[in-house]
């Protein structure tokens, strides 16, 4: 399966962005006046380039992320950016057995170790750990088939140290899979997609509820081959088997088409996400899925000043407002950062201009008052 970003046909401006703002129906508010601070430009090849994934933040305000290219071998890097904007390259991938070209970001444990995936390398990608001294350990190497291949998304981690993620290829039907990696490096295929009604080719990762159930999306498959939202739950009795339930199958019409990013979940179990295309104008939607499987389109992008083609998902604040980015459009055509309130009113917080402020954001945003939270890229 071709990588989604290869279809875009546009370059990506490589920088880290910080926007300062006062943090259904197509209802759009006027763009707010905000100030943008470019924290770092990836101007030298050795420091990395093409940061497709977003960043996470620690309690001291340091940011951590990856680039898909650059570094000594042009196979990407893991970096840290301190509060003054100074970048440190924590690890440079060689493109060999250590992996290469990470499309996903990283998560961080309480000891400061980082965990992530690479899309490529000498194999079909790896899961890696990076300690505080910059030493990489390959926790698992994907080889295709039942082991999985080409993880577009990163991982999440439970209290026992087990990691969970998806691969966009591999599995028994080569339509991608969901996996678990235990602390000893043993991989278990939790579910293998068929590419049919159950979904196929998950580009987004998974989230986990308090009961241990997993939730995610596939970009294709479903009843209309427009993607699905799914739930995975362990079968009772300790058999090790997992049951997939398709919570919603997109029709490719006004309800959306092709969810690239994963979902987030509120305290009562509602799920929120985006689709890259579809909607009333065809430029993607923000949607909500309630616990009964009822989908509500919270906003349908027009491809105008409000933005279009949201590659990234959303985050949610304590008041229920959603925040995200669109890959295209806005007033200059380079994408926007938006806020969607609980009434479905969209506010464009920032319009990218392409240079020198950047453009075409693949990743979403994080809130700076939530340190140590493991966001999905």
Characterise this structure.
- With 377 residues, this protein is mostly beta strands.
- The protein has one domain: 6 Propeller (Neuraminidase), CATH 2.120.10.
- 0% of the residues lie in helices and 35% in strands.
- The chain is built from no helices and 27 strands.
- It has strands at residues 15-20, 27-29, 35-41, 56-57, 63-67, 77-81, 87-92, 106-108, 114-118, 126-130, 136-141, 155-157, 163-167, 177-181, 187-192, 207-208, 214-218, 228-234, 242-249, 264-265, 271-275, 285-289, 295-300, 315-316, 322-326, 336-340, 345-351.
- The chain starts with 14 loop residues before the first strand and ends in a 26-residue tail after the last strand.
How would you describe this structure in keywords?
mainly beta, Neuraminidase, 4-stranded antiparallel β-sheet, disordered N terminus
SSE map:
Elements: E1 15-20, E2 27-29, E3 35-41, E4 56-57, E5 63-67, E6 77-81, E7 87-92, E8 106-108, E9 114-118, E10 126-130, E11 136-141, E12 155-157, E13 163-167, E14 177-181, E15 187-192, E16 207-208, E17 214-218, E18 228-234, E19 242-249, E20 264-265, E21 271-275, E22 285-289, E23 295-300, E24 315-316, E25 322-326, E26 336-340, E27 345-351
Parallel strand pairs: 2-27
Antiparallel strand pairs: 1-3, 4-5, 5-6, 6-7, 8-9, 9-10, 10-11, 12-13, 13-14, 14-15, 16-17, 17-18, 18-19, 20-21, 21-22, 22-23, 24-25, 25-26, 26-27
Approximately what portion of the residues adopt beta-strand conformation? Answer: 25-35%
Q: Could you list the spans in which at least 5 consecutive residues all have pLDDT below 50? A: 1-13, 19-26, 370-377
Shape: globular
How many helical stretches? 0
What is the top-level CATH class? Mainly Beta
| CATH A-level architecture | 6 Propeller
How far apart the termini lie comes to 20 Å
Describe the largest sheet.
Answer: 5 strands, mixed
The spatial strand order of the largest sheet comes to: 2-27-26-25-24
What is the number of domains? Answer: 1
The ordered string of helix (H) and strand (E) elements is: EEEEEEEEEEEEEEEEEEEEEEEEEEE
Question: What class, by secondary structure content?
Answer: mainly beta
Report the helical percentage.
under 10%
On the 0-100 scale, what is the average pLDDT? Answer: 90
Radius of gyration from CA coordinates: 19 Å
- The CATH homologous superfamily is named TolB, C-terminal domain
**Overall number of strands:** 27
Assign the CATH topology: Neuraminidase
